[in-house]
Amino acid sequence: MYSIKKEVLGAIIEASKNTFPEEFIGVLGGNIKNKIIDELIVVPATFGTDFSAIHTHLLPMDQKIIGTIHSHPSTSSRPSQEDLNAFGKLGQVHIIIAKPFEPSSMKCFDSKGNTVKLKITG
Length: 122
Ligand SMILES: [Zn+2]
Known about the structure:
Distance between the termini: 16 Å
Number of domains: 1
CATH architecture: 3-Layer(aba) Sandwich
Shape: globular
Bound molecules: zinc ion
Helix content: 10-25%
Radius of gyration: 13 Å
Structural class: alpha/beta
Number of helices: 2
CATH class: Alpha Beta
Order of helices and strands: EHEEEHEEEE
Largest sheet: 8 strands, mixed
């Protein structure tokens, strides 16, 4: 189980709503050992194309980067094949938030695409 800070979740929800109907893509910062997500890092990406549009070569070589977040303009938070390929490449924890962009429409996965629990902390 991973923990995510309430402010980070709020930022994710806001960014996803603002980017809709395009996909929002971001990177998660935190502590992988303690399984804490405490930062949303907005990265250079081409919004509205697909997940593979994250320009990984432009990412800071930061130990804090532990995974990814992206939104689905549909109501399905199921990872696509493309998502699964990307999950394996960039970090250990991956969040997909689907319409209507609420905590209940959000799912968290490991790098193999297995669902993992996400706890919201203050
Ligand atoms: Zn996706």
